[in-house]
UniProtKB/TrEMBL annotation:
CDD domains: TRX_family
GO cellular component: cytoplasm
Name the record gives this protein: Uncharacterized protein
Signal peptide: none
Organism listed in the record: Wenzhouxiangella marina
């Protein structure tokens, strides 16, 4: 019971940190409505594991702060939203997905330097 409470607290704190840093959490119910809007969206897809994903989440959140107002940034937990992850073809984690006007344009697999991710984002901006 204590382990479940600890895991729940960990997940909630991760959610709060991500949202406070500019990453809006999406799930199976909200993904299409939020990411499908006109413009450029970036989605960081991770799982319940905490290790390297926290670093990447922090770096993507910092990027979200720099692009506030011109790009929407989201986080998707593949473990909690398996339907959306499967529909998007997510087979390994982490992955960064780039959308333009609701359509998937780029799927960047694994942990890559943030300058690579930022370069891909720049290529999508007008």
């Amino acid at each position: 019971m204590i382990k479940k409470a600890f895991l729940l607290a960990l997940l909630l704190s991760s959610f709060s940190v991500a949202q406070a840093q500019g990453l809006q959490r999406v799930d199976d119910n909200s993904f299409d409505e939020l990411v499908g809007n006109p413009g450029v969206s970036v989605v960081l897809v991770t799982g319940h594991q905490t290790g390297p994903y926290r670093q990447m989440q922090s770096e993507v959140a910092a990027m979200a702060s720099r692009y506030r107002g011109s790009v929407r940034f989201f986080s998707l937990d593949a473990d909690s939203s398996p339907s959306t992850a499967s529909r998007l073809g997510v087979r390994s984690l982490p992955v960064v997905l780039f959308f333009s006007n609701g359509g998937l344009i780029i799927q960047q697999l694994g942990e890559v330097p943030m300058d690579v991710i930022e370069g891909q984002l720049q290529a999508l901006l007008p």
